[in-house]
Specification:
The complex is a heterodimer of chains A (317) and B (559).
Chain A lengths: L3 E10 L2 E11 L4 E5 L6 H9 L6 E6 L2 E2 L10 E4 L11 H11 L4 H14 L15 H13 L5 E5 L7 H18 L2 E6 L2 H7 L2 E6 L2 E6 L1 H6 L4 H6 L4 E3 L2 E3 L4 E4 L5 E10 L3 E7 L4 E7 L13 E6 L9
Parallel strand pairs in A: 3-8, 3-9, 6-7, 7-8
Antiparallel strand pairs in A: 1-2, 1-4, 4-5, 9-10, 11-12, 13-17, 14-15, 14-17, 15-16
Helix pairs in contact in A: 2-3, 2-4, 3-4
Chain B lengths: L2 H37 E2 L2 E2 L2 H7 L2 H35 L4 H9 L6 H12 L4 H9 L11 H25 L4 H9 L4 H29 L3 H6 L6 H10 L3 H27 L21 H28 L3 H6 L9 H8 L1 H34 L3 H11 L6 H12 L17 H23 L3 H9 L4 H29 L3 H6 L7 H10 L3 H25 L6
Antiparallel strand pairs in B: 1-2
Helix pairs in contact in B: 1-12, 1-17, 1-18, 3-7, 3-9, 3-13, 5-13, 7-9, 8-9, 9-12, 11-12, 12-18, 13-24, 15-16, 15-24, 16-17, 16-19, 16-21, 16-23, 18-19, 19-21, 20-21, 21-24, 23-24
The chains are: A alpha+beta (317), B mainly alpha (559).
Bound molecules: adenosine-5'-diphosphate and magnesium ion.
The site of magnesium ion has 4 residues of chain A, from helix 1.
Chain lengths: 317, 559
Amino acid sequence: MSDVILKNISHSYGAVRVLDQIDLTIRGGEFFTLLGPSGCGKTTLLRILAGFIRPTEGEVWIGDRDITALAPEKRNMGIVFQNYALFPNMTVKENISYGLRVRKLPAEERKRRCEYYTELAGLKEYEDRRIQELSGGQQQRVAIARALVIEPQMLLLDEPMSNLDVALRVKMREEIRAIQRKVGITTLFITHDQQEALSVSDRIAVMRDGKVLQTGTPGEIYDAPNQEFVADFVGFSNRFGGRLVRPEQMQLKRDGEGVPVEITDIRFGGMYYEYRVRSQEGEYRVLELNRGNASQKWKRGDTGVLTVLTEGSGANA
Amino acid sequence: MRKTDQSRTFLPLVWYGVMGFLLLGYILLPFVRTVLEALRAGDGYGLLNFHEFFSNPNQWTVAKNTILLGVSMVVTCGTIGILLALYMTFLCSRFKKLIHILLLSPMMVPGVITVIAFIQLYGESGVVTKAIQYALQLPSAPFVFQGYGAILFVITYTQYVYFYLNVYVALKYMDYAAIEAARSLGASWLQIFRDVIWPVIRPAVLTSVIITFASGVSAFSAPNLIGGGFKVLSTQIVRSKANNHMEMASVQVVVLFAISVTVMLLVRFYSRRFGSIAADRSQPAVPEGMRRGWLAVVGRIVVLIQILLILLPIAAIIYLSFVSTSSIMQDIFPRSFTLENYLTIFRKKRVLKPLINSLQMSVMAVAAGLVLTVPSAYLIVRRGGRAEGILRFALMLPSAMPASLVAINLINAFNQKSLFAFGQVLIGGYYIIPIAYVITALPMLLSSNEVAIQGLHPNLEEASRSLGADMGNTFVRIILPNIAPGIMAGGILIFIRMIGEYTMSALLYGVHNRPISISIITNMQEYNVGISLAYGVIVILICYLSLALIFRLDDRRFL
Ligand SMILES: Nc1ncnc2c1ncn2[C@@H]1O[C@H](COP(=O)(O)OP(=O)(O)O)[C@@H](O)[C@H]1O
Ligand SMILES: [Mg+2]
């Protein structure tokens, strides 16, 4: 499967520049995530990839082919829209087979592929339903099957979870990831939810104000953010001794080496305890796994010392 | 590689060319022709005709009558329409949908037929008139159903619907919690209306004022048939045209246009001072307790009277259409039923022809109107640039033109060979009426198409493209099927309005295209009342069936 390469892409709507010199390579077969706050230009980038807008500057390549000016219908990209964009005048089956019908594939082949992807998306029993009769999760499966059935070069997903409730989000993202692994398709996933991004991606690009700030594996992004914004966006971090340190990378001890602190608040999170502590320099958060009674010993007002547990390669704050 | 980008702009360009040609040739230039005709003075141009118009006291009276009718209609329709909308929103609980549809139904009956029906009820030999005369043993009819009062009565009965529907829809966005709050603070109903309800419905009321005034000053059926000595511009325009005074007809129609546009601009100017208020509805249900009390009782009585007024003429016209003409004329309560009227229509080709004509011409107008407005609406909604703005403005222009202006424009432009008709003389021919229908239908069709297209998320088109369908395929498989119900519903509404159209028909019909509205009147005048009424019933039937179709296609329209 070919790499998808964005070369120096910039885009302006009128006078407003929303993408600024984006360079990205999405490797063949990988699950690549664009993570960034709302309005940072994620959708615009996806629409450029899909061919709905021509970038003001820059090129889009697939392998060794420049597709910058190629019409969307010739790009062979499967898209799952935020609102799914299912055709309301068609049944589930008709939605899924649409891409094959407009391609005028032989009926035999159409049937085979439709059945395969309907099964894959777990929609067998809903085939003849109307779109209006489906739940949010089911609609999303239809959207995914419809996009995959054309066996596209690439799958583009624009915040597909934003219309689902929290419990379903976790379930669906696992499912999407499983399907992607099975099909082995190059995937661009867009989200503003760091948890989602960290848990499903092979690699992540963190975006802000039309720029890519950092690209890397979830581990790299989390453990070694290259700047404060990235660090904050993928989770809380303490500014400690001139560095960014994650709460779970810190340890509270009764005494010994470390910065003297006082405990100002304790929150129980089930799996962990979260301590709010204060030193002369500032306030920090410390996470400690709940290992039975270990935490009993700390109370509000206690004093202790704070140390960094693992020497992460965190960026300077 | 650039090819796709070029075709994206090329097709719209062709479309703008075609639309430019048609709009210029059939709307703009004909209007200029009318203005020039009005300014014609001997061999040159001047204000001579206008001078003649304004120095003639009779013409002054006609102009004043026209304005009087427009203003009084706004008052009567506004009062009844707003009261009904308030009642239906806050007080009505049982049979709400049915009553709502009944209240809307006068819109579905062509004006000519309504007037005929009213004449059968309240005219000199009308059922109600005769009943009262008989009951009170009066030597002559107790009232004369003619003149200003009669016209106002008839028109109010049909035209309150604009106010009613617009205000009813606006009230859907009313925040009931605000009313509750005002009540808990001790406000009276009057204060609540003034401070809470009025700001919400004001935009709808102002829009309705414009529409109602415009339809009042250009009303033709009622003034023509029961006007008596009360003359208005629209009737005088037809008379001037019949007497071949095209210059005077043009002056009169320009004056009519000026009156209607002035009021429109005044109201627009006034309404711009207020932003629109769209409150979110926080409470879905009307608070209990509101439905009791004397207000509800009064409201119920008003609605009952209104429904009676709506149903009585239709009942009368259906009833009388099954009675022979001689019995209608002689008996107080005709009881000799016959199918003769209907049989005559369907047996005699000559008698059936007007019905066929009207059906054909309305269907043609709707089809042509849709062909012109669907792609235009699509471009306007999806592209929304300057060219689209101009296109939209041009297509909406006829909404500011009274029907008689459209007809007079066409006469002035096409009573000779014209480049825009490819060298033909259209006046006297068959197609001039459907053309006039199309022109008046453009604004409404455009608006309803725009609504339908706005309801279609652009993502659907993009999804289709990404799945491999080109623009043409996407249009046929995705766009069209999804906007069809809304578009068809709009088209049918136009069909209903056109099938009984009278004003333009009266100015433009010839031997080949005599429409049903004209035949209804001539049969009536030639004492074939039975035929006239049977025609009316057939048209009403067609209209109601069409209405039922609209509800099937687009069940949220009007509700
Ligand atoms: N069609 C458009 N015209 C003008 N501005 C737009 C358009 N689409 C998006 N924008 C603006 O571009 C910026 C990026 O938008 P978008 O790509 O949708 O961001 P995201 O998907 O990350 O939320 C936003 O500020 C948005 O308001
Ligand atoms: Mg977005």
